[in-house]
Specification:
By secondary structure, this protein is α/β, with parallel strands linked by helices. Helices cover about 40% and strands about 15% of the residues. Helix 3 packs across helix 6 and helix 4 runs parallel beside helix 5.
């Protein structure tokens, strides 16, 4: 029909190894993504922009994931989340606000909890994924071997809302191995929580250069990572500057205003 179209891509088939072998490669090649003179393309990170240009010969606009940083986050009831998750007010909560899937790197959060040597530390995962029960069993085995308290408390299903979960967090852990962008990372900035993050490729290229201040790992929990986490957990006020900075970076680079700036020229065209 040649209707003017904006195609907004979050993931391409070539980005996920499990899609490398399939029964309909010619269909994927021809139609995903669809290319034509009436299409404008929007992607969520610079790597995707570069690959789309190489593989399909088309340019695209990078529109990152965003949140409404111009509006204050809703207040959360951290005590309610802790109570419903079986936690005490004195527990130190390392919140992993992700699904239970291998690319989320939950092992690194467990390792950080172990290295901190604090029996009051609890690792809490806020999103289940019923497809990978075997992976959760592996994580529980690892946690048991290291003496780490690991529990699943799905926000909105078992224990409070998502805002309650963030309010309960002493440190948000986002040690992903791969992300298209990283919604949970923006949520942590938005809810003003200190963050431990693994430097996955999109974080390193698209997010870190904006000036965010996180505890950063490079695939391993080092002494420097442990020392900074211990300092922030021991004196939460010491993380206040980083938390405020991350919120301001979010307002500047990952707010709804960015959507307007990036999409209006496409709509006008």
């Amino acid at each position: 029909r040649a209707l003017p179209t904006i195609a907004h891509h979050h993931d391409f088939g070539w980005e996920r190894p499990r899609f490398a072998n399939c029964a309909v490669p010619e269909i994927l090649e021809a139609a995903f993504p669809a290319i034509g003179p009436h299409f404008s393309h929007v992607v969520i990170n610079q790597d995707a922009r570069d690959e789309l240009r190489v593989r399909r010969g088309v340019d695209s606009v990078v529109l990152p994931n965003v949140m409404d940083f111009a509006a204050a986050p809703p207040g959360g009831d951290g005590l309610r989340y802790r109570k419903e998750a079986g936690l005490s007010p004195s527990d130190v909560v390392l919140l992993q606000p992700t699904r239970v899937i291998p690319r989320k790197g939950i092992e690194l959060t467990i390792r950080l909890a172990y290295e901190l040597h604090d029996p009051g530390i609890k690792v809490v995962v806020s999103h289940p994924d019923d497809r990978v029960e075997a992976y959760w069993a592996e994580l529980k085995t690892l946690a048991d071997e290291l003496g780490v308290d690991l529990r699943l408390a799905p926000a909105g299903r078992v224990a409070g809302s998502l805002s309650d979960a963030y309010a309960a967090a002493d440190l948000v852990c986002f040690p992903s191995l791969y992300e298209g962008f990283g919604n949970a990372l923006l949520e942590a900035f938005y809810y003003r929580r200190p963050v431990f993050v693994n430097r996955y490729s999109v974080y390193a290229r698209d997010i870190a250069p904006t000036g965010v201040d996180c505890i950063e790992a490079q695939g391993a929990v080092t002494r420097e990572v442990v020392a900074r986490a211990a300092a922030w957990l021991g004196d939460p006020s010491s993380a206040a500057e980083a938390v405020d900075r991350n919120y301001e970076v979010g307002r500047e680079h990952f707010s709804f205003r960015v959507v307007r700036e990036r999409l209006e020229p496409l709509l006008e065209g």
